[in-house]
């Protein structure tokens, strides 16, 4: 089974290049690259990309799927279909389910259920039993079963001694811990970033310093234990110096951010619009711009959707009472392309943060256009305009902050290991 | 007529001429309220529902009286004790009430923005009687009317708002209203009770009450909630009264004819000295309560006029 893409704009996040060429796939693996008009091998399926962009499929780190517990909000099937349509070839699923994914048995269950999805699904496991912050999970068994990282999600492990033991134990297994760097005392009850906007609207708010404090604690623990650590979302400029110091000290630390914090700011909440409630809350425009810059410089490693399906009833409530989070699988690429069209980030930079770096950090084989990598690919037109209609999304939940927004970027085809999972090109 | 709003959700949405129009009408109702026969037919045949998701005696009584004096059928619902306990959502409660065809809905809710949300779902006029720490527009309007009557004007005054600004919807609405009418505003209180970013709102901040009160025309005290007194925001009641309680000695620093206001209910000896609160030469606290009814009558009347006008435009076959 051979496949060749000709006249494709190849977005290579490893080489940081964006140039016309062709790409060959053999038996689900990338076999090589050549000139744009490279002759097709005998019997190969030929796809004429007509100058559209061909890139490694997105690896979306931190997707909430409602199985087990909330299948009415999202199932592996619905999330997988949304991912395929969105060019996401690998979903990194979150463990903050009901009950949490904290035992090998639970992991085996979701791994079976994940077979419903047309894209790759990898699982993170909880860091502590029940996500209660008291006892660590069986990191060894869970690692053996394929858990790619350990996290309690947005629930901070308050007990620093326990957190340090988790890091030390995980280090012995070379397991990655994903933290949520926020000071739990300061953030308690807060649903906005403190400042003039939150004060005028009377919304309980927290200073950006809560993130700095949370990050400082976690980085101190990393320095102490030498564990592998990833900060799930770094969203304010004040956090960056600590991150730089940690890197300079040679700590094994990476950081991510959600696409929403790169494309929206605190004022978007407007008249208490609950689809704009996030954890952490949206930040100032200055912070947003600093974060775009940090991604461009590679200081922030990964961008993800933090896809969080919520049903209508969870959102049709006063702002404080509404559930946080937004669906994001199908808006990840078009929202990221806003940053490209505005000139803040190149396509290779975007795919470094959305494909290559998650793959490297989670030790997955995808995220690259190089020979020998799995043919997890997307072909897309970065310029095609559209107006987003939330009811057209394939997720079971429709809670997107981009409803009615003018966006650009259409996925023409998605391939997982060389097999088409979306589009009608081949 | 310049007052065009469909709902009264906050001061933020009002223009200065709308505020003036409402206060002028309230001034007329204040006169009516001092007569023996206090009745108008402005709301005759209309239904007013008071829906309070948070306990209130004074505000609810004030709205009830305002509605009755204008001839409306008034119903009070203490929602905190009923369906919400059974798990009904805010929107469902609103839709249920809406189906009973009220014309005016007065709502208080403990969460900011809840009244805005509710107003989107009903087709009657909605008055915000306080939402979380967001706004309490009729309180700011009654304060404005009280100031205008006592001082003869509502502009170019120096007004001190003292106490728990951070958790106060009264402070927010007053800040916006008095700012729109071009007054100088000083906020006085401990930093733990000041909202973030307030320094950018064109006000002066004081942590020293004596300094802040110098030469002011109006001293507006705020209520300190009991639950904030236990060491979380301030160390103790007695230290708070010492530093931020209003007494004759601190008031002596204000302008000689300065008036003292308080939205009630008062904590005597915590934020205000009892004798001062009762001093009829300085305290206008009872006038505030009186103006409260008049302002609410004016608000109900104006919203009812707009409601009738909009129904006249859309309804077919109505007389």
Automatic annotation (TrEMBL), chain A:
Keywords: Hydrolase, Pyrimidine biosynthesis. Residues 51-230 form the Dihydroorotase catalytic domain. GO terms for biological process: purine nucleobase catabolic process; pyrimidine nucleotide biosynthetic process. GO terms for cellular component: cytoplasm. It comes from the Bacteria. InterPro entries: Amidohydro-rel (IPR006680), DHOase (IPR004722), DHOase/Allantoinase_Hydrolase (IPR050138), DHOase_cat (IPR024403), Metal-dep_hydrolase_composite (IPR011059), Metal_Hydrolase (IPR032466). Residues 337-421 form the Amidohydrolase-related domain. One of its GO terms (molecular function) is allantoinase activity. It is an enzyme of class 3 (hydrolase). This is Dihydroorotase. It comes from Paracoccus gahaiensis.
From TrEMBL, chain B:
Gene3D superfamilies: Aspartate/ornithine carbamoyltransferase (3.40.50.1370). Carbamoyl phosphate binds at residues 58-59, 108, 136, 139, 264-265. This is Aspartate carbamoyltransferase. Reversibly catalyzes the transfer of the carbamoyl group from carbamoyl phosphate (CP) to the N(epsilon) atom of ornithine (ORN) to produce L-citrulline. Belongs to the aspartate/ornithine carbamoyltransferase superfamily. ATCase family. Its EC number is 2.1.3.2. Residues 6-148 form the Aspartate/ornithine carbamoyltransferase carbamoyl-P binding domain. Coiled coil: none annotated. Residues 157-302 form the Aspartate/ornithine carbamoyltransferase Asp/Orn-binding domain. The keyword Transferase applies. Keywords: Pyrimidine biosynthesis, Transferase. One of its GO terms (biological process) is 'de novo' pyrimidine nucleobase biosynthetic process. One of its GO terms (cellular component) is cytosol. L-aspartate binds at residues 86, 169, 223. Heterododecamer (2C3:3R2) of six catalytic PyrB chains organized as two trimers (C3), and six regulatory PyrI chains organized as three dimers (R2). It comes from the Bacteria. It comes from Paracoccus gahaiensis. Pathway: Pyrimidine metabolism; UMP biosynthesis via de novo pathway; (S)-dihydroorotate from bicarbonate: step 2/3. PANTHER family: ASPARTATE CARBAMOYLTRANSFERASE, ORNITHINE CARBAMOYLTRANSFERASE, MITOCHONDRIAL. It catalyses: carbamoyl phosphate + L-aspartate = N-carbamoyl-L-aspartate + phosphate + H(+). One of its GO terms (molecular function) is amino acid binding.
């Amino acid at each position: 089974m051979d496949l060749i893409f000709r006249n494709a704009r190849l977005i290579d996040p490893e080489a940081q290049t964006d140039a016309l060429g062709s790409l060959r796939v053999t038996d689900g693996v990338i076999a090589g690259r050549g000139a744009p008009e490279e002759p097709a091998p005998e019997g190969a399926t030929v796809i004429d990309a007509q100058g559209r962009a061909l890139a490694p499929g997105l690896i979306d780190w931190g997707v909430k799927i409602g199985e087990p517990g909330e299948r009415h909000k999202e199932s592996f099937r619905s999330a997988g279909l949304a991912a395929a349509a969105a060019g996401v070839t690998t979903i990194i699923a979150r463990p903050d389910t009901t009950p949490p994914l904290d035992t090998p048995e639970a992991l085996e269950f979701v791994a079976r259920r994940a077979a419903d999805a047309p894209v790759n699904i990898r699982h993170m496991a909880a860091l502590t039993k029940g996500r209660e912050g008291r006892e660590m999970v069986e990191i060894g068994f869970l690692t053996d079963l394929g858990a790619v990282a350990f996290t309690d999600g947005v629930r901070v492990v308050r007990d620093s001694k326990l957190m340090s033991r988790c890091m030390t134990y995980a280090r012995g297994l070379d397991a990655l811990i994903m933290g949520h760097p926020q000071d739990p005392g300061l953030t308690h009850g807060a649903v906005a970033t403190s400042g003039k906007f939150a004060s005028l609207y009377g919304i309980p708010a927290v200073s950006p310093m809560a993130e700095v404090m949370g990050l400082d604690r976690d980085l101190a623990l990393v320095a102490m234990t030498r564990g592998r650590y990833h900060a799930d979302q770094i969203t304010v400029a004040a956090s960056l110096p600590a991150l730089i110091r940690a890197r300079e000290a040679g700590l094994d630390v990476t950081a991510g951010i959600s696409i929403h914090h790169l494309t929206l700011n605190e004022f978007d909440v407007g008249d208490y619009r609950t689809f704009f409630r996030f954890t952490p809350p949206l930040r100032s425009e200055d912070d947003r711009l600093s974060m775009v810059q940090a991604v461009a410089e590679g200081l922030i490693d990964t961008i993800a959707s933090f896809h969080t399906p919520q049903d209508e009833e969870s959102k049709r409530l006063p702002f404080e009472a509404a559930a946080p989070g937004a669906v994001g699988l199908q808006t990840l690429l078009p929202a990221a392309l806003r940053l490209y069209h505005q000139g803040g980030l190149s396509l290779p930079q975007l795919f470094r943060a959305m494909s290559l770096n998650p793959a490297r950090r989670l030790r997955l084989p995808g995220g690259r256009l190089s020979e020998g990598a799995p043919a997890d690919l997307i072909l897309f037109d970065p310029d095609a305009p559209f107006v987003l209609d939330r009811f057209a999304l394939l997720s079971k939940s429709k809670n997107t902050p981009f409803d009615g927004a003018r966006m650009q970027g259409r996925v023409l085809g998605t391939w997982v290991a060389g097999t088409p999972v979306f589009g009608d090109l081949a | 007529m310049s007052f065009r709003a469909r709902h009264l959700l906050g001061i933020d949405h009002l223009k200065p001429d709308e505020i003036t129009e409402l206060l002028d009408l309230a001034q007329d109702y204040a006169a009516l309220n001092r007569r023996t026969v206090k009745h108008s037919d402005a709301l005759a045949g209309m239904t007013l529902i008071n829906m309070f998701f948070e306990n209130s005696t004074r505000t609810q009584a004030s709205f009830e009286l305002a509605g009755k004096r204008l001839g409306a059928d008034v119903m009070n619902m203490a929602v905190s004790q009923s369906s919400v306990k059974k798990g009904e959502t805010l929107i469902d409660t609103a839709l249920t009430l809406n189906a009973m065809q009220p014309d005016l809905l007065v709502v208080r809710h403990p969460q900011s923005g809840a009244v805005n949300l509710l107003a989107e779902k009903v087709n009657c006029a909605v008055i915000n009687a306080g939402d979380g720490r967001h706004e309490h527009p009729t309180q700011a309007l009654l304060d404005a009317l009280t100031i205008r009557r006592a001082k003869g004007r509502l502009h170019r005054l120096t007004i001190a708002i003292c106490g728990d600004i951070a958790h106060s919807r009264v402070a927010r609405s007053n800040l916006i209203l008095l700012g729109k009418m071009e007054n100088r505003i000083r906020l006085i209180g401990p930093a733990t009770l000041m909202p973030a970013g307030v320094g950018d709102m064109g006000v002066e901040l004081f942590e020293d009450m004596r300094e802040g009160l110098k030469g002011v025309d109006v001293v507006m005290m705020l209520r300190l909630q009991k639950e904030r007194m236990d060491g979380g925001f301030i160390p103790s009641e007695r230290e708070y009264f010492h530093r931020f309680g209003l007494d004759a000695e601190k008031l002596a620093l204000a302008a000689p004819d300065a008036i003292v206001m308080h939205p009630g209910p008062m904590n005597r000896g915590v934020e205000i000295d009892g004798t001062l609160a009762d001093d009829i030469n300085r305290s206008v606290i009872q006038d505030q309560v009186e103006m409260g009814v008049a302002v609410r009558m004016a608000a109900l009347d104006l919203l009812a006029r707009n409601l009738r006008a909009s129904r006249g435009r859309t309804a077919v076959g109505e007389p």
